[in-house]
Amino acid sequence: MARPSSGQAVKRCACRDPETGKQLGTRCPELSKRGHGKWWGRYTAPAGPNGKRRRPWVGPFDTKTQALEKVRDALTDADAIGFVPDRNVTVTAYLRGWLDSKKKLKASTLDSYREAVELYYIPALGHLKLIDLRDHHLAELYRAIGQINRPMEDGEQPSEVLRRLVAARALSKRKLAEGEKPSLKRQRPLSAARIRRIHAVISSALGTAKKRKLISVNPADFVELPRVAKTKPQVWTNERVTRWQQTGKRPARVMVWTPQLAGAFLDFCEQREDRLYPLLHLVATRGLRRGEVASALWVDTDLDGAKTMSVLAGPEDDDEGPKTEKSVRTFSLDEANIALLRRWRKQQEAERSAAGEDWIDSGRIFTRPDGSPLREDYLSRHFLHLVEAAGLPPIRFHDLRHCSASFALAAGVDMKVVSATLGHARYSFTADTYTSVVPEVAAAAAEATTAIIPRGPR
To answer: Pfam families recorded for this chain (predicted)?
Structure first.
């Protein structure tokens, strides 16, 4: 490969010829005046893939020295990566092209990537050239994200980046009002964990850009992210339930039912013949993630021989951090879940016959009545509706997974077995999360068991 030639610096302006309307550039007679025009660097680069000669510009700069320094930086980068990157590619153009290339992602995951790009990165940084993006740009963005939906201090003025983010969210709300697909999901301040998940999107995108040699360094690697406080589950003891009934406030974000409360919930679902009762029973007893149970396939399930189920755990949100890409785990099924799955398969076959040619053969275990996949957000909404209808203290759909882990450990199942069943990336996470919860679950279960036995007056 031919080495890029040394560059030069010239002064240009945006004045236009009154007759042709074209920019005068270096021909403007006013350039000799102080403060008129800007300095630009230019150098000859190797021919691009189409064989055409290339002479990239860098700038504008206030001084000639700055322009020449930038030219030298560009030539150094060219030597390091083997060619001169296209300086005209903006962050907006690159990120949208990167999103279009993510063909194998789940729809829900792609939606979350697109939300991060359209609500945060493009409004705040989309005008920048990709090659000019630096870690301080990302740090400024995350400071602004942390201020969204938070009151400003007296005399404090929103930054330009925050103004852009607020405008983007206002536009998203208008689109939602007009019937378009919602992209704005949160009205509360964004947590540190949420900012980290947003950062993971740009980190992946810029990592791809580095592999393609569009940039020499990934600036996302050097950003100091906000610290996420670990949230451990708390148990809905009798005292906490009473307090919740009095105030309507839950003690913590992550709550776990006692076995009695979980049993009451499953009894309620079974008695009202809720269509998704087998799914809820499976999650409450085997600890599947929402995405795992929604995408589980019949071909990965053996109800008659090994009595196992295998699930694909993609990179979705969880308390122990991101999963490895396409990690598969297999776990055993108990007789109760096997019986429910067999009954569910018969129901699904009846729905297939009723749908006829309209049946969508997704191959998934849990589907809509027409065979199409269940949406993960629907599972969460449906679960919350059932909890409220049952009059039980609230937990999230994902907390059923914590319930399953707590019950297994309280029943004496080895910690390593529970960790493997849940698919935790680290055994230490299982121990750190549930060690303090298990005694409380066991104690609450003992107290609740004694409390339900009717006794005469003493």
So the answer is: Phage_integrase
Which residues are bridge partners to 302 per DSSP? Answer: 308
Residue 316 confidence (pLDDT) above 50: no
Looking at the structure, tell me whether residues 284 and 425 fall in a common domain.
yes
Domain end call among 222, 245, 271: 222
Tell me, yes or no, whether 457 lies in a domain. Answer: no
Helix, strand, coil share (%) of the chain residues, nearest 5: 50, 10, 40
Confidence of residue 1 (pLDDT cuts 50, 70, 90): very low
- List, in order, residues 6 or more apart from 306 with CB less than 8 Å away: none
Do 265 and 386 form a contact (C-beta atoms < 8 A)? yes
Task: Give the domain-ending residue among 81, 115, 140.
Answer: 81
Q: Which domain holds residue 305?
A: 234-451
Residue 79 to residue 213: CA distance in whole angstroms: 12
Give pLDDT tens digits for 69-124: 887 877 776 665 555 556 678 999 999 999 998 877 777 788 889 999 999 999 99
DSSP 8-state assignment for residue 297:
B
- Name 9's Cβ contacts closer than 8 Å, sequence gap at least 6: 39, 40, 41, 42, 64, 67, 68, 71
Domain count, the chain: 3
- List of residues 6+ apart from 267 with CB closer than 8 A: none
Predicted confidence at residue 149, as pLDDT, reads 80
Strands of the sheet containing 8-16, edge to edge, are 23-25, 8-16, 38-42, 57-61
Q: Tokens 């196992």: give the residue.
A: 308
The string of pLDDT tens digits covering residues 181-212 is 444 445 678 888 889 999 999 999 999 998 88
- Per-residue pLDDT band at 315 (split at 50, 70, 90): very low
Tens digits of per-residue pLDDT, 228-269?
A: 777 788 899 989 999 999 999 999 888 999 989 999 999 999
* Phi-psi map region of 427: left, alpha, beta (phi>0 left; psi -120 to 50 alpha): alpha
3-state secondary structure at position 58: strand
Residue 332, sorted as left (phi over 0), alpha (psi -120 to 50) or beta, turns out to be beta
Sign (positive or negative) of CA dihedral 73, 75, 76, 78: positive
The CATH number of the domain holding residue 213 is 1.10.150.130
Same structural domain, 184 and 272 = no
pLDDT of residue 439: 75
pLDDT of residue 339 exceeding 90, the answer is: yes
Asked whether residue 303 is domain-assigned, the answer is yes
Asked whether residue 3 is domain-assigned, the answer is no
Q: Is residue 51 part of a domain?
A: yes
Q: Round to whole Å and give the CA distance between 326 and 258.
A: 33
